[in-house]
Amino acid sequence: MTGLTSKGAATRDRIVRAATELILDRGVTGMTLDEIRVGTRTSKSQLFHYFPGGKSELVGAIAGYQNSRVMAAQQPWLERLDSWESWQGWRDAVVAYYSNLTHKYCSVTALVNDVAPTEPELAAQVSAYADQWREDLAAGLRRMRDGGLLRPSADPERLALTVFASLQGGLLVMQSQDDIEPLAAVLDGALVMLRAYAAEDGAAGSKRGTART
Fold first, then answer.
1. Quick one: DSSP state of residue 199?
2. Contact 94, 82 (CB under 8 A)
3. CATH assignment of 66-203?
4. pLDDT tens-digit series, residues 152-166
5. What is the pLDDT of residues 118-140, one digit of tens each?
6. d(Cα 71, Cα 37) in Å, to the nearest integer?
7. Rounded to two decimals, what is the model's pTM?
């Protein structure tokens, strides 16, 4: 939302942060605007002033905020995926982030799954976040291939898709079982899979980044 004063931007940010905690606990469909208004200590007029599109616009802001937190938690590794050590660091950062969460709806995708079918613009927004995350992984794998750590025949985009799909599946099982182990297991498996595409010289290099099994 543009054109806000610094005070207005701070108020909107406060609402988004407070509403995020509420919706991550109960899901999008489990919270009404009235409950969000009470939980964020916001008047009805104030809520619609900052989010004239109503609940859909607020959920979009929440998805953006939550996505920024998830991306920040993966740094600096996500921008440095050019070695086996960096991939291990990335794996550990992801597991650490989700290990510290107590929310049921911890992933951005899970957050909007219930409303995305009827909210195409929101679905497109979340899809863009997912596409960027997958592209960050693919960029790292392209650097690995260009640096001689992956075989020339390796397909960074397809490998990134496999890693990303494993990650999302691990998040869903983690959520249903309330246990971090499914996420840790699928990420370990993803790193083993990537190692299978290591160039001969790259595989003979540093062993510190070997995936845990």
1. -
2. no
3. 1.10.357.10
4. 999 999 999 999 999
5. 778 888 888 889 899 999 999 99
6. 28
7. 0.84
